[in-house]
Design goal:
The structure is a single chain. Helices cover 40% and strands 19% of the residues. Strand 2 (38-44), helix 2 and strand 3 (63-66) form a beta-alpha-beta unit. Helix 10 (247-257) crosses helix 12 (295-315) and helix 11 packs antiparallel against helix 12. With 356 residues, the protein is of the alpha/beta class. It has 13 helices and 13 strands. The N and C termini lie far apart (44 Å). The chain is globular and about 60 Å long.
Length: 356
């Protein structure tokens, strides 16, 4: 009788067929794994580029789940998670390529230390350079201001707060606040029945699950011993809906605002608005001075991000109303056998969900 898989790799795909092919090929060709030790699950969020046909034809061993709608990253991961009983799960972006030994060594690391709840990997950019968004410190007003308001160029480095995104390339294995959901391996016993808070579509959900797991007494670790290439933003760059694009702001903002008062929330919005408004102005000027340098695209992104920010801020109900709604509409989540009450956002109503 074949033993059940120890590790399930869950990949949520949306319209990145060719990148998904490379991702699945790298997973298939991984070394150091016993036959049947790993299963791969692809959740396709209603792609229109032939992704599902490619998976069925070229990777018949992969379990394919067609969601029928763009559920987003967080809800897509949940669909894959519920389809497996494996004790360990690796969330892997479709725009990643794992090194041959990465999966086996990640599995060995988390399995051999029963205190580890979440393990993240070192991510590298397409050009081989270190990707700062591999992980970092939880956002604070200090590290957000340092990151978005160019304070690192104006003040001594010794004044720098713990970086919200890693500002160096740390070696070895070490504790960390959060690791990127692009490659996040976790123990089922630590996470419980639901991976992410249901308020998330994508972005910020990796911070939230890392905090919940750590608060429940498990280790959250970053490992530089495994490197994974991450062609960052390939799926997101194809999104055209402003509602979906707004999630790059809404998700981290929702995470930051939990347990903080009105002044801190206002400062958060002011820091990010100032940061992206200044980037829009700077990149627009550079694009005019140096056409074809790529600054025009960066200026367009900054402008769209500002639009998403404004839409998010002015669509929210007043703070006291939101608190009343949250008190009435709380949801319970089992985290490592601890129950805690987590507020829902009114934006989770079916009519308000992004559908791009």
């Amino acid at each position: 009788m074949t033993a059940p898989p120890r590790l399930a790799i869950v990949i949520v795909n949306w319209n990145v067929r060719d990148l998904l092919r490379d991702c699945l090929a790298a997973v298939r060709d991984s070394e150091g794994l016993a036959p049947g030790e790993v299963e791969t699950i692809v959740v396709d969020n209603d792609s229109a580029d032939g992704s599902t046909a490619m998976v069925a034809a070229e990777f018949p061993a992969v379990r394919l789940i067609e969601s029928g709608a763009n559920l987003g990253f967080a809800h897509g991961c949940q669909r894959g998670y519920e389809a497996t009983a494996a004790p360990f799960v690796m969330l892997l972006n479709p725009d990643t390529v794992v090194d041959r030994d990465a999966i086996a060594t990640m599995l060995a690391t988390i399995a051999n230390d029963p205190a580890i709840g979440i393990l993240g990997a070192r991510l590298r950019n397409s050009d081989g350079s270190f990707q700062r968004a591999s992980g970092g410190a939880f956002p604070t007003l200090a590290n957000l201001a340092w990151n978005y308001l160019f304070l690192g160029h104006l003040l001594p480095r010794r004044w720098a707060p713990p970086a919200v995104y890693l500002d160096d390339d740390p070696p070895g294995i070490r504790p960390i606040d959060w690791v990127s959901g692009a490659s996040l391996t976790f123990r089922r016993a630590a996470v419980g029945p639901r991976i992410f808070h249901p308020a998330f579509f994508m972005f910020g959900e990796d911070m939230e699950v890392c905090r919940r797991v750590r608060d429940a007494g498990w280790k959250v670790l970053y490992s530089a011993r495994q490197s994974i290439t991450h062609h960052h933003g390939q799926s997101f760059s194809r999104q055209t809906s402003l509602e979906v694009l707004a999630t790059v702001y809404k998700g981290p903002r929702f995470f930051f605002r939990q347990g903080r008062g009105p002044l801190a929330r206002l400062c958060y919005d002011a820091i990010l608005f100032t940061g992206y408004a200044s980037r829009w102005a700077i990149f627009s000027l550079l694009a005019a001075v140096r056409p074809g340098s790529g600054h025009a695209e960066m200026a367009r992104f900054s402008r769209r991000y500002l639009g998403a920010m404004i839409k998010t801020m002015f669509r929210e109900p007043p703070l006291h109303n939101r608190r009343e709604q949250n008190d009435e509409q709380g949801c319970k989540t089992n985290i490592g056998h601890r129950w805690r009450r987590i507020p829902r956002l009114s934006s989770l109503r079916q009519a308000d969900r992004p559908r791009a």
